[in-house]
From TrEMBL:
Protein name: L-fuco-beta-pyranose dehydrogenase
Keywords carried by this UniProt record: Oxidoreductase
Taxonomic path: Bacteria, Bacillati, Actinomycetota, Actinomycetes, Streptosporangiales
DNA damage recorded as keyword: no
Similarity comment: family membership: Belongs to the nitroreductase family.
CDD domains: Nitro_FMN_reductase
Organism whose genome encodes this protein: Actinomadura verrucosospora
Gene Ontology MF terms: oxidoreductase activity
Length: 219
């Protein structure tokens, strides 16, 4: 397999500049499947409970299927946007975060409108007995998929690709599963729109100070 030259990013820079890319996704530039496969090879190095590796990866490039998924995603987004629980609402009582949250809302709306035009949609999935999610803690189940999916996002960033971590399509998980022919025992964990990104680079995002969320030995 031919390996693409990665960007000259130190580990800390890679980890702090792998951002959710929405408005800066290049909707016109095709993404080679060989590059997606390269990122998925790195995704497969993620951990899984008992080394079961029960993950599956759906890569959607067909325009009609992307359009159908985009339709479900757009419906889900508007239901969410008018629910009062959006990212913007999270910062309405904090003026310091209001501007950032406003940008998040704007970019989320943009992605909802343009998802069908993103050249590659990656849907990480996990095998679940009978397709029924556990009634109790699901940490082991999703912990066997989501780190690998984040590996994909990191690998994509290192190769000049942008991604956005989203789960809004899961409101219509059954419809998307039928569209893609998923068997009953396979559940979707996320949706990663993937494309080259525009502009020069990314910088770390503003975050709540560590002192406000750190607890040592007790709450």
């Amino acid at each position: 397999m031919e390996i693409m030259t990665t960007l000259p990013l130190a580990a800390d820079e890679l980890l702090t500049t792998t951002r959710s890319v929405r408005k800066r996704l290049d909707l016109d530039r095709p993404v080679p499947m060989s590059l997606v496969r390269e990122c998925l090879e790195i995704a497969l190095q993620g951990p899984s409970a008992g080394n079961r590796q029960g993950w599956h990866w759906i890569v959607v490039t067909d325009p009609e299927k992307r359009a159908a998924i985009g339709g479900y995603y757009r419906r889900s987004y508007f239901e969410y946007a008018f629910s009062g629980t959006t990212e913007g609402a999270a910062g309405e009582d904090d003026p310091a975060r209001a501007e950032t949250q406003s940008r998040v809302n704007s970019s989320a709306a943009y992605l909802a409108a343009q998802l069908a035009n993103v050249p590659v949609l990656v849907i990480p999935c996990i095998e679940v007995p009978d397709g029924e999610l556990p009634a109790g803690s699901q940490a082991s189940l999703w912990g066997s998929l989501l780190p690998a999916a984040w590996n994909f996002a990191l690998a994509a960033r290192a190769r000049g690709l942008g991604t956005a971590w989203t789960t809004l399509h899961l409101t219509y998980e059954e419809e998307v599963a039928e569209l893609l022919g998923l068997p009953p025992g396979v559940r979707q964990g996320a949706l990663l729109p993937t494309a080259y990104f525009t502009g020069e680079n990314f910088k770390p995002a503003p975050r709540i100070p560590l002192e406000q969320v750190l607890h040592v030995d007790a709450w």
